[in-house]
Write a structure and sequence with these properties.
The protein has 551 residues and is an alpha+beta fold. It contains four helices and 29 strands. The N and C termini lie far apart (142 Å).
Length: 551
């Protein structure tokens, strides 16, 4: 991030709660601080620190419940989320950059239903850029979605705003053929889907610092700076309806009639009275008005500003009625007491012409003060001393006023606390009485429970004694039975031994008989071999051994 665009990432931010109180968020070398005002910057509260860190770049927004949200990058390459709620600051890490990554161009946008975070990530290691979108609904951040990406490391950042119906409008700056070109996209809040990009700027020029708004009639208004042929131009382009090929975008209009060679800061105001385009070039601010939605513009006017003027970012509660939409303001001192355009306050129903004159009056007043001081150069030393004295006097008066307000505030708080203490003591007395009665009732209940517990323990003890006696008798009976069974088992073992001996004896006798049978078989075989089957002796033997059935 280089040049003015890098400086704007650290510029202060005004957050408008309800057109009655505003916050001023700003960074120092090692802190992020804030102030509050309830009178459009005429008086500011004491400076307070939100976080003790060195801020590389940041963006802030305020939601429908007037809760402050801040996204910032610290020196440790961490992207942090800071939320102010009920007087306390809550901090968490969204993600840590990887080696070679650089994140910036934060845009934090609050709608009636959610919070949107956009940023550009440059990955130096692979020479690639990504435009990322996160949505926060409730207490959780959704994972980032890559809307666009490409090779190289151009500063293709995006600028966004929300319309009356929560539709988000985006102008993205892309590098194409060595020129930064602007593309328009919109997000449908019902589907969270982006439409296809439409190119809204020329291709043969560089374009910077785009601004985009949607009015109550759903018409789109955009403003940006164009650079071509060593000259800067302020360009306005509006869109009233859809359609091919330009998507309802009217022809662009060049608002500056003078030649500008120094980079201007565009400021675009949209309110119920119409459009006002400002642009600061050097120490001069130029402006033009349109009361017919950008179709026609009044003559260009200019005034000289203090060289110490600086840009201030602006965001507001999305539910503010009669909104004045602008992205940037100019301040002429710090903390700022006057703004261009004028910081919104309680809505006025004056005619549009009177309001338009009042919006430009602050520019003319600053110019008159400077011209008057130039005409009194010979009184400059005295004037400087007088200004210092006036500054000291204003400081003392403001300090006294702040002390008086703080005294009244403390008195009001003290009275309120005394009433609260009185109510608390009365309430505490009643509660102590109720507690005493409750304790007495609980003590009676405990006495009853203690008696019941003693009776129960006594009954359990008696039952245990009876069970012990029964267990002893049962044990003796079982031991006697075990002894009897043991003796019986011994007797059976003796019988088994005798049976074994008998079996052994019978086995031996059986073996003897088998031996006799074997001998007889041998004798038969011998007889068979000795006598022929035809001999009468064999016949007799056969008859003796196998007598016939008739004998």
């Amino acid at each position: 991030m280089e040049g003015l665009e890098k400086l704007l990432q650290l510029s202060p931010t005004i957050l408008n709660e309800n057109n009655q109180r505003s916050w001023l968020i700003f960074s120092t070398d090692n802190t992020l601080n804030y102030l509050k005002t309830s009178d459009q910057g005429r008086n500011w509260s004491k400076e307070k620190v939100a976080v003790h860190e060195t801020i590389e770049s940041y963006a802030a927004a305020i939601d429908t419940e007037n809760i402050i949200h801040i996204i910032y990058r610290n020196q440790d390459s961490k992207i942090m989320y800071l939320r102010q709620k009920n007087g306390k600051w809550e901090k968490q890490i969204i993600f840590s950059e990887k080696d070679g990554q650089k994140t910036g161009y934060f845009c934090l946008l609050s709608t009636k239903e959610s919070l949107h975070l956009f940023y550009l990530t440059l990955d130096m290691s692979i020479s690639r850029w990504r435009l990322v979108h996160h949505i926060k609904k409730g207490d959780l951040w959704e994972a980032g979605k890559i809307l666009e990406e490409g090779s190289g490391l151009p500063e293709n950042y995006a600028v966004l705003s929300a319309g009356p119906k929560n539709r988000i409008h985006m102008i993205q700056r892309r590098l194409e053929n060595d020129c930064y070109v602007l593309y328009y996209r919109t997000l449908d809040p019902k589907t969270d889907l982006w439409n296809y990009p439409t190119q809204i700027s020329h291709k043969n020029a560089n374009h910077f610092l785009p601004i985009i708004f949607e009015d109550e009639q759903n018409q789109i208004h955009s403003l940006w700076i164009e650079y071509k042929d060593s000259e800067y131009k302020v360009v306005y382009r509006g869109r009233s309806s859809g359609g091919w090929p330009e998507g309802g975008w009217a022809q662009q209009k060049i608002l500056n009639s003078n030649k500008m060679t120094t980079f201007p800061l565009p400021i675009f105001l949209l309110n119920s009275n119409g459009l006002t385009a400002y642009w600061k070039s050097g120490s001069t601010i130029y402006y033009r008005n349109s009361q017919d939605k950008g179709c026609n513009w009044g003559e260009m006017e200019s005034n000289t500003l203090d060289d110490d003027s600086f840009a201030i970012r602006y965001a507001e509660n999305p539910q503010i009625a009669n909104r004045q939409r602008f992205l940037w303001l100019l301040g002429t001192e710090f903390p700022p007491h006057t703004f261009i355009p004028k910081l919104p306050g309680t809505f006025s129903s004056e005619p549009s012409e009177a309001i338009a004159r009042e919006e430009v009056q602050s520019v003319q007043t600053i110019s008159k003060k400077q011209n008057y001081s130039n005409s009194l150069d010979h009184l400059e030393p005295l004037e400087d001393a007088f200004r210092k004295l006036e500054g000291y006097s204003d400081h003392l008066v403001k300090h006294a006023s702040n002390l008086w307000e703080e005294k009244n505030t403390m008195k009001h708080i003290l009275d309120k606390q005394q009433k609260q203490y009185s109510t608390f003591y009365r309430f505490a007395g009643e509660k102590v009485k109720e507690l005493h009665q409750e304790i007495t009732s609980r003590e009676n209940d405990l006495d009853k429970m203690e008696k019941q517990l003693k009776d129960t323990i006594k009954n359990i003890s008696e039952q245990l004694q009876k069970e012990k006696v029964r267990y002893t008798k049962e044990r003796e009976r079982h031991l006697a039975k075990i002894s009897s069974l043991t003796e019986e088992n011994r007797s059976q073992n003796v019988k088994i031994e005798k049976f074994k001996e008998t079996i052994d004896y019978l086995k031996k006798e059986l073996q003897k008989e088998e031996e006799k049978i074997q001998e007889l078989r041998k004798d038969v075989i011998k007889l068979k071999e000795a006598a022929s089957p035809k001999s009468s002796l064999w016949t007799k033997v056969t008859q003796i051994i196998y007598p016939s059935k008739g004998q």
